[in-house]
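Chapter summary example.
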Amino acid sequence: MSEHFAKKWEQKRDEGNSLGKSIRETIQPAPALKPQLEFACRKLDMQISKLDQANERFTQKDKALFAKLVNSYTQHDTAHANIYATELSEIRKMSKLIMNARLALDQVALRIRTISELGDVVAALGPCVGVLRSVSTGLGGVLPEAEGELGDIGNMLSGLMFDAGSSSGMSLNFDSVNEDASKILCEAATVAEQRVSANFPDLPPGMPGATNKSKA
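The structure predicted for these 216 residues follows.
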């Protein structure tokens, strides 16, 4: 490990530390760039909280629109019912997108928190950067401010990853990175779909956005 990376890896030691302790810390260094990674996790937690708040807003709006839809539907006011159903369909798409992003960010934060060795930095952060870029792009049309903030976090992790790679001599397997990132995104999308289906009531049959189950 280079002296340059060791200085970034560990917090500054007190001058009175014993030689034995210094040797042990060189062989078994503190968690990878710990202060920077902890900072990244805090920023991710802030974004997750904002996504939770946005999802709650969409949920409340969904409930209000659904009540109007049911009222119009029972009164055979098809014109208004279709309008409400179309709005509900769009809201649920955005809710699923936000939930998908939130679940993906959870996985990114979890991976960062489990980094404990130098080799973990490159292996763990590669997929995280890919997920962050995908999520930030997807949220651009719904939460524009999240796109920039997640992009900043991704850029910071990219810098840490390549710094660790150059200092340790480790190379990045991009095929493996892309595969891991895809798995995270696919798992998040699957769970988000299930949660949206479970959390939101079906639209009346024949309405725009009605599921096959409700049509049946």
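To summarize the output: The chain has two domains: 1-30, 31-200.
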